[in-house]
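thought: fold this chain, then report.
action: predict
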Amino acid sequence: MVNNATIGLLAGLLLALAATTGGFGGFVLALVLGAVGLAIGLQRDGAVDLGALLRSRNRG
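observation:
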């Protein structure tokens, strides 16, 4: 199993690569896509219920 330190190291390296190759725009895009990936991963793990969050926004 991969521990959290290894995942954090890989995420940091990928963000650094995005910042050097894409500039500030690439860095922001990498952060946004990373946040979306994190949300999907938490949904699949059962830690977050995105369906309930989206339903509560549509109630008015």
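thought: worth noting. Helices lie at 4-45, 50-57.
final: tokens above.
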